Amino acid sequence: MTDQTNTAPGPAHPTALTKVREVVFSSPIALIATVLVTIIVLAAIFAPVVSPHDPVRLTPSERLKPPSELYWLGTDAYGRDLVSRIIYGGRISLVVGVGAAVFAVLSGLFLGLMAGYIRWLDAVLMRMVDGLMAIPNILLAIAIVSLWGAGLWTVLIAITIPEVPRVVRLVRSVVLSAREEPYVEAAIAAGSSTFLIMRRHLLPNTIAPLIIQGTYICASAILVEAILSFLGAGINPETPSWGNIMAEGRIYFQINPGIVLWPGLVVSVTILAINLLGDAVRDALDPRMAKRGIDR
Amino acid sequence: MSDQLLEIENLRIALDGNPDQQVVKGLNLSIRPGQTTCLVGESGSGKSLTALATMGLLPKVLQTIEGSIKIKGEEVLTASPGRLRTLRATAMSMIFQEPMTALNPVARVGQQIEEVLEFHSDMSQGARKKRTLEMMEAVHLPDVEKMYRSFPHQLSGGQRQRIMIAMALIMRPQLLIADEPTTALDVTTQAQILSLIRELREQQGTAVLFITHDMGVVSEIADDVTVLKLGEVMETQQVEQLLRHPQTDYTRDLLRSVPSQVPRPPSPAASDEVVLRTEDLCKTYGGTGLIRKGREVRAAQDVNLTLTHGRTLGIVGESGSGKSTVARCIMRLIDPTSGKIMVGDEDIAVMKQSDLKARRKKFQIVFQDPMRSLNPRREIGESIIEGPLNFGVSRAEAMERARDLLELVGLPGSAIDRFPHQFSGGQRQRVAIARALAMDPDILVADEAVSALDVSVQAQVLDLLADLQERFGLGILFITHDLGVAAQICDEVMVMQTGKVIEYGPAGEVLGNPKQDYTKALIAAAPGRHWDFANFRPFSEAPASAATPANQS
């Protein structure tokens, strides 16, 4: 009977900033993950400032030194400072990680929207996607790198392509369920074009899952890059990258195991931190995952 | 020990246990053995929560902060989880609104019933099966041996609800809690389930706590009625007393809002300008296939209808009758298989989408579920102006008009920048109507547009539609399963069953003096058709001058 009464002005839609704050402070783990990711990113950006040494200068007299006050984690077989190389290596890893995430999400978004909304394209696109998914990620990446030769761009593309199918499937499934919603039908009835319907009504639904998927792709790309470099199918060996450092340190493992272990640890921590951040974002965007339910 | 079977005293349930956020506020209720008590209220009244609390099934976020619930003198609120499990099968049990989701889709229904016996009795396997089959017969399921081996999806909605009832009653509990058990069912199925519950109550002496929003159902099944509003008991009375002499304004308003089964007099035709006409409209699903023809489903067959300026044509029917198919074909949300759809003098049935776009202005739709028909991420203003923007109206102008439209549908114009979740269901449906009107349509298709709303809100939205129709001369195509609603708003009625038109004519004729058996059966099944709720008396006591009930056969 009180249908016509004014609704109290409910909470305004949260701005991006408050949303970010909400994610960061949602749990202690989210906070730690954010701090770690921030440190790693800042270190990579300001590598020339924070590195104690030049990462590529060869000092034959200082080969395979153990950790000391001068070289905190020791040096590698060419006398290069390990700390500086790991810091600089972070640049490659982060560029590859973020780059792969952005490219995979953008291309996956485009293809997924097409597949989800244009029925005849769906069958064609999804069979290609299935085909791609049948090949293991690393195998596909190695094949692409060996086809075009190593280099940052090739590595980036080689890592991105195997990630795209997952994004396409995700976007397609979101679009398929959203397009059945009456509000999409209402938009059709209002004479909106397919493009407008995608932009106004379907695209916004995909953003939350894509942010989450993006963080996972980022973490996985960093790992794949390290693996490719370690296998010698990655970035030019002179460029410090976490995988390269480990690959070079492999034969000196018995003399200075730190050359393999420290970059390995950094890779693990980075990936863990990014994944935890992804989980925090997911929980913040989709509270149903975290709470509710009868526990009997 | 008292002679009451269930005694609820001063029950208070609050969100997060916070006394300032009470959703059930001091509820008292008692049920004697063998008695049926209806708990009536609109959404948010706390009727379902009371039932869940009785079963010990409240969601975690809700806590009982005060009161007691006793079944046969035993306190439920403090019972251990193990004791609760036993109580739930042997002393009380519950059936839910949606029998499909309450059954396990991958287990055979017979085994699901038998499982209850497995947990709560030490019968041998043979005895369990025998008892299960007996129970399935008791709820009048056909061919029980075959039914026993069926999966839920192979049964109809009514049969699934019978399975649920069999499962609930197999341990012979003294109390059956039924939470809107017939709301998701068709009216004829509903009538059967109601009579089944009545029958079982008489045979087994089961008391029933029946939760419903439907006064018609109440008049059919209740002994006592408790009316709830926002967590508070408004009144508790014996059913006939309540329907004749409601004590509170709230109950009176609730009863007045119940749509009467008596068709209203047709509105005078403003003009006989035909705004919409279909000729032999057909929609067939399936039947195509590269190698072998698939099974054909004729969702709509040879539908001929005519809608004139300023009039309302109702399409009524049960689920699967094809009424929504017709509406969606007319909106060209799906493509008809054959036939013509004449809007004005153009056939839009085969028109290309690109040509159609320019014509979409003329016909607009209001959907059933106001939660889903507005994009939750967009301000309602954006939703309202979407159409006009597509037709080249400037943003400022469209916004200005959207404000006026909001006021027209009874919402403040200042609400334009709010999001759908900030509105109630009825308000959202008003927004959806404003959006449809923004295009200045000649035809408004209302697809079960009031079915998801509470009865008082439903009455308001129906009034709004009637008012708008008068003002703008809208031709309204009103799809509904509710004959009362149809009687209240329609000038003409078309009855559909399994894709075919059964009967079509003026509302007074079709609903007041139906020719076809199916229409008669539909009308006979409508709950509460003997009661003139708005005047607090049965139709049989109506003064001779007043309208007589639709059909008493």
Automatic annotation (TrEMBL), chain A:
The highest taxon in the source lineage is Bacteria
State the protein's name.
Answer: ABC transporter permease
Source species: Lutimaribacter degradans
UniProtKB/TrEMBL annotation, chain B:
Could you name the domain of life of the organism this protein comes from?
Answer: Bacteria
Q: What is the lineage of its organism?
A: Bacteria, Pseudomonadati, Pseudomonadota, Alphaproteobacteria, Rhodobacterales
What keywords were assigned to this record? ATP-binding, Nucleotide-binding
- Annotated protein name in UniProt: ABC transporter ATP-binding protein
This chain's source organism reads Lutimaribacter degradans
